[in-house]
Structures are given as C-alpha cells and as structure tokens.
Amino acid sequence: MTNTNTNQPLLKVDNLHVYYGAIHAIKGISLEVNQGEIVTLIGANGAGKSTTLRTISGLLKPKEGTIAFEGQPIGGVPAHEIVKRGISQVPEGRRIFADMTVMENLDLGAFTRSDKDGIKADLKTVFERFPRLEERKEQLAGTLSGGEQQMLAMGRALMSRPRLLLLDEPSMGLAPLLIREIFSIIVDINKTGTTVLLVEQNANMALSIAHRAYVLETGRITLSGDAKELAASEEVRKAYLGG
After folding, report:
1. Which of 29, 78, 125, 152 is the most buried (most CB within 10 A)?
2. C-alpha neighbours within 13 Å on the C-beta side of residue 222
3. CB–CB of 74/86 below 8 Å?
4. Which of 174, 191, 176 is nearest to 129 (CA)?
C-alpha cells in the first residue's frame, strides 16, 4: 500500500521500548522520517542506534510502542515481510555472504521480487553506481576489500527496490577517502528517490548530508532538529564532533 497522504510521515516510531533480556535498550523513543529525507541518528556507542534500526527492520520485537510505515503498523512483522513492504537494511559490519560471488549476493537482494525486467534494470543501475562490483561480479564476496564489501551490501539492499533504506554504520572500518565516496553515493541514492535513515558514528559526515537528525543517549532521544543547526550547536559539537 502506498502512502497517499503527503502529510503523513513515511516512517513513524512512537514511544518505542526495546529490551535485550533484562536490559532496557530503547526507552520510549519517538521519531519520524518523511518521504525523500535523509535522517540520521547519532550518539555514542551503546546509545541504542543500531537497536532502533534492527527493531524497525523486524529483527527485534518491541516490548511497547508502535512503528508505522506508509501508515501501516509494522511492529513485530517478520523481517522478510518488512523487506517486501519496502524497507531494506544495510547491516553494521556489512554481513555479505563471503563464500558466494558478488553476483549471487546481488541476486539474493532481489529475493522478494519476481519482475525479471525490473530486476535486470535495477542490476544495471547498481553496476552504474558501483562499477567495481561489475568488474568483480564473478569474484567471491569475501575476497573484496572493506570498501567494496560496503558497496556490495548497499547494492544488495537496493536490489529489493526499497522506499526506505536503513544504513547502519556505513563508514565503519573504511579509509577517509572511501568514507567520502560512500557518503556521496548515499546522497545520490537519496536524490533518485530513496528515503534514508542513517545510523553513523562519524557524526560530522552524517550531519553534513542529512536533512534532520536525532541524538540518542542511553536509549533516549535528547536532541532533534535540522541537521545543519545541530552540527552548529555547542552541545553537539562538544559531545560528538570533537569541538
């Protein structure tokens, strides 16, 4: 079902509580992502950023609260069903299938689809965006460099043709030059119509490309607003931007 009400956020998270066993990891957060935005979650390690993404993508079940995508509740819906509905996640640490080829990994990204022509067209777009993947399409994914594996993880997620792309720490372990390349690709993906929710340790980079941002501290949102304004805020600079 498509979001016909333009005033309605594409994704709405309301009063979300998530536990890992006895640990209360997410303590009542609420956030919204509108169609066409890049929204970033920033915060220290262990603040609950990845847990938030994993709950939205159906890998974790919320104890309390609601998650709605295009106006439909998705809290507790199985992960493969959430991919079908139009949300795809690029997990932290990439999680590619190392003993499969680049091409096999990309094919797996389209597992929810049966439109052969559409899949073919999207594969062409992925190769245009990530030429190195085309050069290495018959290579085992585990033999790629860290940057190439990140590109593969992003390409694989795009093969499901998501309307919302969840990115978990895309810069992790990458050299500065590659980080800039990955971030410019994220901007490009967004400009071609995919909404992005980005979790990122590198707050400077995240705030430089995002429209809006939320700051998480120990499972709670402590600040939110326009990304440029947050980047200029004294409080955020001291805590997250090394200023």
Report:
1. 152
2. 14
3. no
4. 191
Average pLDDT over residues 221-235: 93
* Cβ neighbours of residue 173 closer than 8 Å, sequence gap 6 or more: 146
The residue that leads in pLDDT, 237 or 190, is 190
HSE (side-chain half, CA atoms, 13 Å) at 28: 1
Amino acid identity of 140? L
Q: What is the mean pLDDT of the chain?
A: 92
Helices (H), the chain: 49-56, 79-85, 102-109, 116-129, 131-135, 146-158, 176-191, 203-209, 227-232, 234-240
What does the block give as tokens for 140? 């085992």
Tokens of 231: 């980047």
User: Domain residue spans in the chain?
Assistant: 11-92+161-240
**In the block, residue with structure tokens 């980005």:** 198
